[in-house]
Amino acid sequence: MQRNIHDLVARMSLEEKAGLCSGADFWHTKAVERLEVPAMMVSDGPHGLRTQKEGGGVNDSIRAVCFPAGCATAASFDTELMRREGAAIGAEAQAVGLGVVLGPAVNIKRSPLCGRNFEYYSEDPTLAGMLAAAFIEGVQSQGVGTSIKHFCANNQEYRRMTVSSDMDERTLHEIYLTPFEIAVRQARPWTVMSSYNRLNGGYVGENRTVMTDVLRGEWGFEGFVMSDWGAVADRVAALKAGLDLEMPSSGGVNDAKIVAAVQEGRLDEATLDKAVTRILNIVFRHIDLAQNPRPALNLDADHEKAAQLAEECAVLLQNRGALPLAPGAKVAYIGGFAAEPRYQGGGSSHVNAYRIESALEAAKAKGRHVRYVEGFPSDRDQREEAEFLRAIEAAAEADVAVIFAGLPESFESEGADRKHMRLPEAQDNLIARVAAVQKNTVVVLHTGSPVECPWADDVSAVLCMYLGGEAVGRATDALLFGEASPSGRLPETWPLRLEDTPCYLDFPGDGHTARYREGVYVGYRWYDARKMAVRWPFGHGLSYTGFSYRAAALSADTLTEDGSVTVSVTVRNTGERAGSEVVQLYVADETGTAGRPPKELRHFAKVTLNPGQEQELRFTLNARDLSYYDPEMGGWYAAPGRYAVLIGHSSRNIPAVLPLNFVTSRARPLTIDENTAMGDLLRDARTAPILQKALARSGAALGENGGGDTEGVMAGEALAQMLDGMPLRAFTGFGGADAAAALPGLLQALRNALPETKNRE
Ligand code: BGC
To answer: For 633-649, what is each residue's pLDDT tens digit?
Structure first.
């Protein structure tokens, strides 16, 4: 419907405008009845609705389908699946009259210990961003908005409302902002949720650079920013920085501060008008797209969708032959999670699930030969020897033992980080004892984040279901018995032990500050750079069939600044079952310009193939795919030179490597003064000949004397390296009187060769 929002804002009183910038209650924006501005309802969340019941309390939510959590859906490596999940949640949101779903949650998994990792997607910003974009497109295809969260650098729960995430600019852009950037640019979420934490000292909610300059200025975000619940510290500063809506409500206290600031001239009313306009735009978009009458909820149909999604998210981590189980196999099911799966995490994303299906229930329904022994409970770390003995006996008597292990909810939840990376002791213990009597031992994991698996070498197979939603049991059954082939891939590295993780020394910080000293070396970027052994690498996941690649090729061997290159590869299902492969494309910078991780994921695609079937996949690469964030260049930059395009089954299984040359006229600024290193000038085609001439004139003296008496002491590589780092003033120190006198002229000649560079005198 055509509306004049500008006119509406003009008719609002100062108090009405300030009021609109905070919630009416926990879940609604304010209505302005006088002007027929309706309220809009928002609800969590990322993997199902937590919508408060009418007349119910804050934690009393309607029954809704609990879809697989972010940890699981990310393992699908499948944008189409994310769109499906989003569309299903969007349709439920339409049915209950929601304006905005509070998700997706895309914070980077900096440490496996973050209590909220189960909601988040990945340690890799590209994967997180592309999946989030697809989820947003799915929800918003139903005429319901999203709120991508938590913007930004909110990577731990410990002291989350005050801790400062301290990092350099490159790391911020390259790792922590990128998921938001990809999703905002591609999918245009209606809203963004700003996070609780501080960033380099100040609250994110008061950070104009990220919330206005970057989010709106660079990425073109047009919706409104809402605060995380209770995240606002200084309301007026936040409004100025670009935080439009405070949630939930401050009981009028902060609204009054906005009014006073305008009246006292500390806040420009135009800033308030902008925030109000953004909020009204979305409220009315919701009204225009809300279906009337509301469609019916179809929870049974959504439950089926949840089962299908869970099946496509599971990751087969290891299989030495125990899987898939033969249909008639005599199987022992051990572990409380077989009867009571852990399928979601605790906190604001908690869904009042419609119908929970366990693997045991599914096995019974299918008439499988399964004997169940609890062994250990699903909700706590508890060991009882008699129960252990029963489990070991059942395992020994069966053809196969399947242990359903995982983290109890008390180990992993919003609001608290994990203290260690282990499973409950009772579980590690029983797995080891069962494996000792049964060579066909399979471990099924229910966890939102990696756990140490000290028994991995002793068991035959490990199937990770992550937190797979309410129908996870049905999916587990289908995968165990080979009715479906596993096709998930790890969206995060599973390290051998906590001490190996990149931020081990800095997580979660001292209570005030978390120093991100590992920089851009997060996840596989770290393990690969340090050539460390890991339990299972990023991107890893097995199948019941096999895949091979052939004809990997680039459309051209050189990429230019504004051009693109197509990468193609043909994938073949070499096994005897249908299955899905995830082709992963990484880029490696071999120019040596900046410290770069050995490889970085840039694209991926999932393809489903029948036995013997082939399919060609294509990806497009451009300059951004080769780039890193260079603060000195004020943005993304790829140096000219050699790169490699890696096409792999996982980050550590790369069958195809294609060289790619990059050509650009952009160059990092070179400051020319007496302290400029000669190596930098010799690498630039414009300055190299000038310096070479000067060196030829006095090079002998520099070579002999530079850095002291080198004769007989240094040669070859070492000498070359020393010269590379020698500043121009060495002409004065070591070059002799003529060279010293010629230095000012040399500096001028070099500057003239680089007219665009900023020269320091
Ligand atoms: C969480 C958000 C959530 C909000 C509303 C906060 O505590 O951090 O993710 O959307 O509550 O439930």
So the answer is: 999 999 999 999 999 99
The residue from 44, 78, 124, 228 that is catalytic is 228
For the chain, give the number of residues: 761
**Are the C-beta atoms of residues 467 and 343 closer than 8 Å to each other?**
yes
Gap between the Cα atoms of 108 and 70, Å rounded:
12
Q: What are the phi and psi torsion angles at 470 (to 5°)?
A: -65, -20
Given this model, what pLDDT does residue 723 score? Answer: 82
The reply to whether 213 belongs to the active site is: no
- Whole-angstrom distance, CA of residue 5 vs CA of residue 287: 14
681: left (phi over 0), alpha (psi -120 to 50) or beta: alpha
Query: 149 CB less than 6 Å from ligand 1?
Result: yes
Q: Which residue has the higher pLDDT, 29 or 592?
A: 29
User: How far is residue 613's CA from residue 548's CA, in Å, rounded to a whole number?
Assistant: 11
Span from the CA of 229 to the centroid of ligand 1 (angstroms): 6
Q: What strands lie across the sheet with 224-227, from one edge to the other?
A: 42-43, 100-101, 145-151, 191-194, 224-227
| Helix, strand, coil abundance in the chain, percent, nearest 5 | 35, 20, 45
Q: Which residue, 338, 337, 497, 495, is CA-closest to 408?
A: 337
Query: Residue 200 corresponds to which tokens in the numbers above?
Result: 């380099």
Alpha carbon distances (Å) from 707 to 681, 703, 713, 730, 746: 19, 9, 11, 9, 21
Kindly report the pTM of this predicted structure.
0.96
Residue 110's identity, in one-letter code, is R
Give, in order, the Cα–Cα distances in Å from 456 to each of 318, 711, 756.
8, 57, 58
